[in-house]
Amino acid sequence: MGTRHRLHTDGETGGRALLVTLSVVALFASVANSAAVMSVDLGSEWMKVGVVSPGVPMEIALNKESKRKTPTTIAFRNGDRVFGEDAQTLGVRFPSNSFGYLVDLLGKTIDNPMVDLYRKRFPYYDIVEDPARKTVVFRVGEDQYTIEELIAQLLQVAKSYAEDSTGQLITECVLIVPGFFGQAERTALVSAARLANLKVLQLINDYTAVALNYGIFRRKEINETAQYFLFYDMGAYKTSAAVVSYQLAKDKATRETHPVVQVLGVGFDRTLGGLEMQVRLRDYLGKEFNKMGKTKTDVFSNPRAMAKLFKEAGRLKNVLSANTEHYAQIEGLLDEQDFRLLVTREQFEGLCKDLYDRVTAPLDKALAASGLAMDVINQVVLFGGNTRVPKMQDILRSHIGQELAKNLNADEAACMGAVYRAADLATGFKVKKFITKDAVLFPIQVVFDREGESGAMRQVRRTLFGAMNSYPQKKVITFNKHTDDFEFTVQYAELESVLKDDTGTLGSIDLARVKLSEVAKKLKSSVAENVESKGIKAHFMLDDSGIFSLANVELVLEKTVTKEDDEDESTFQKIGNTISKLFSGDSTDKPEKVTEGAEKEEDESADGAKEGKDAKDGEQEPASAGDKQSTKDKDADASADTKADSKEGAGEAGKKTEDGSAEAKNATVKPKIVTLKETIPSKVELTYVAPLDGDLFEASAKRLSALDEIDNAKKRRETALNALESFVIDAQVKLDEKEYASCATEDEIATIRKRCSEISEWLYEDGTDADAVTYETKLEELRSVANEVYARHWEHEERPQALNALKQMINGSEGFLRNARNLTKDANPEKDVFTAVEIETLEKAIRNTIEWRDTEVAEQEKLARNVPVRLTVKDITDRMGMLDREVKYLVNKLKLWRPKVKPTPPPKPEKTADKKEGEKEEATGEKKPDEPVLEQTPEKDATTETEAEEPTVEDIDPTATRNDGEEGGDHTEL
């Protein structure tokens, strides 16, 4: 309370401090309104969550065990569900109820080779087919869960960790995916995120996220010369390698220079990883146990024993990475028989000998795809948990002939790169620009039928997005010969060169079937004498998540406008054509330069003769064709036409002036070409695994909502039970302490002890299965009995501090009163701030407060601690408030007081001087002012007084990283 009093007695300083404090609160409150975002590295074995919130740097969110990574495992048992380590623990006892390594099952039909491999590795799961979508469904008793539902629940857990870490609601995220994920896997993951109520800002490939993380901390080392790095990853499920380049590049739109990381080549092996090694070690341990003959039961027929062996194999694999030998030991493996076996690193490496032969293949594939040799690669950087295995490093080191770079956090690099990207994409953040350009792994082509010279229909293939093409990207394909409704197919292309014998892992080769309608109708209504069709253009998009889509289909027309037609054209028609030019076609806001396929349908003598030329990326159509405008702004076209007309007009005028003849009037006028576009209705039918949508999505959302309600009810019940048990134990302990017991009567102590004893017996007998409401009701009943005693104890503990605060306020008020007596008319006529009545009122208030305090304290001390309190803390604070108001009134009056302005008396006139002045006035006609002048307060004093009145508010920058002069207080710069 002393601080509070000082603020009142020193008005200027106190006011300034208060305003600065309020400014800080207001600024940080506005920053807090910005939403935080997260990234999720949803690996096969572990899940990492990155978060960034306004004013807080990027960081990894901790789980409930305060660990930085969480097992991607979910388990169900008796209506409950658990995640992470709890799910792994439950999975040892009930392996068929605990699900892990789920990510690679996304977007797979039941007959996919990867599903067959999963069943082989984990034979105790009950996997059935979704009757509607033919996808994977896990069955647990009578309950069934689609793969999207299981992944969505893991994402919900990640979201809860992020929200606990930031203290804010999370609605947006960037998700990390393997680079070899196709369209089915990517759209399935987006559907799972929607089930988890998350908006996916982008799906980013794991090697791209790592490369971004590597680059943002080495920004100063990047220059105009390209630097090449190879990132090698071996995780639990797969192995991949990517060649990337770092280089400074100038943005053509903004003319700003930014660092760019571009993926140049990728290689992968989707079944080579730590999981395969762990499974082999598990099977080896199982065979060795069977050889021991401790039981007649085959260990491979017992799911629980297999789960124990799998867990021990994982531990043993990690230990052998740092030790040459170690014992595998499991208590009660099967039929209560223990298992113990010494395993050497040499034995383990022998089990995986054929896997080691595949280690360098992804690296070689990445180099081949990039077209670079190993000698131009600056470094080979490792990430992924299994790159820590010494054997892996030895193989890679000997293959590349140079040391490996290990200066990267192998577990968290991808997650941190993705959260940087999330901050870049989300609103409310300002980050240093770092452009990423990913590469297409699986080429996409358009397949359609057209009539040849002989009249027979033949199939034509045109590549839209070729292998290693950068994306995001837009492409356009033009159909010139079709005059009626037709359809075409979008497919994967050239998979044999990428996947070889594993093309089945990608699922359906067909991606979509597109049907166009009203083609003949549009042509008939649009084509006229001066209007020519330039074909039907289909616009395709491969967004930054690597997801393919058809943007729109349109009929492109060219209208020839002569001078006469142009003169006849009304003003409104001209405005309409201008608007059409401005807003037709692709948006100019593109992630990079748009290139068009420009696939023209023309009669060819041989299919292959022109296919290569037509399919060439970036090929532009001639300007006269008028249908190749996606890389130019339509405003530029309109201005170009205007300039051309102006030049023609100027030329004609000049010619007429020079010749002076009438023939100039009949000079030939070059017609103007206007491009028109008509939308063609299109229907897209996906032919790969259909995304979870419509009624199926709603049904899944309801199932997850029901699970959430069960979890919330369970948490509420646990919280209520813990609160009741804690209060009972706490009450019994406190009544044994003298300071609490002295505040209660014997009857109150007996009542509280009795109620605690009754509740304790009830909790361990009939109350074990009670619901949350029952626990909360009993807690309130017990509190109503015990809170009276606790309240008395609190009053006796807090009263001395309150009295001490009152004493300080009285002392301060008395000091102020002594100074105030010197500011009255009787004591100081020049500074009569206060009246005698005001001084007397304050003096009376102080005197009454002192008398009240002394009386009440004396009466309270006569009372025992266990009787109702007479002098409460509230009474003391009320008295302090009354005295504070009296002092504050006088303080404010002192701040507003100003000295009275006194008039300056006129100088006494002298007779001789007056006479001379009069004569002078008569001679010159001028008159000297002799009126009295009021004395003015000096300007400097006024300024000083104003500055004292208006305390300066300090500008507080909410973010430590914001540069001076930058705008946008709601942005956080990373």
Keywords:
disordered C terminus, 974 residues, 4 domains, six-stranded mixed β-sheet, Actin, Chain A, domain 4, alpha+beta, disordered N terminus, Substrate Binding Domain Of DNAk, Chain A, domain 1, Nucleotidyltransferase, domain 5
In short:
This protein has 974 residues and is an alpha+beta fold. It has 28 helices and 31 strands.
Question: Can you lay out the helices and strands and say which pair or pack?
Answer:
Elements: H1 2-9, H2 11-32, E1 36-42, E2 46-53, E3 56-60, E4 70-71, E5 74-77, E6 80-83, H3 84-93, E7 98-99, H4 113-121, E8 127-129, E9 136-140, E10 143-146, H5 147-166, E11 170-177, H6 183-195, E12 199-205, H7 206-216, E13 227-234, E14 239-250, E15 257-269, H8 274-292, H9 303-320, E16 325-334, E17 337-344, H10 345-351, H11 353-356, H12 361-370, E18 377-383, H13 390-400, H14 413-425, E19 429-430, E20 435-439, E21 444-451, E22 457-465, E23 470-471, E24 473-479, E25 486-492, H15 495-499, E26 510-516, H16 519-526, E27 531-542, E28 548-561, H17 563-568, H18 571-583, H19 607-614, H20 634-659, E29 672-679, E30 682-686, H21 694-735, H22 738-741, H23 746-763, H24 772-821, H25 836-861, H26 873-896, H27 911-924, H28 939-949, E31 972-973
Parallel strand pairs: 1-11, 11-12, 13-18, 15-20, 19-31
Antiparallel strand pairs: 1-2, 2-3, 2-4, 5-6, 5-7, 8-9, 9-10, 13-14, 14-15, 16-17, 20-23, 21-22, 21-25, 24-27, 25-26, 26-30, 27-28, 28-29
Subcellular location: Endoplasmic reticulum lumen
Region (Disordered): 581-666, 899-974
Main location: endoplasmic reticulum
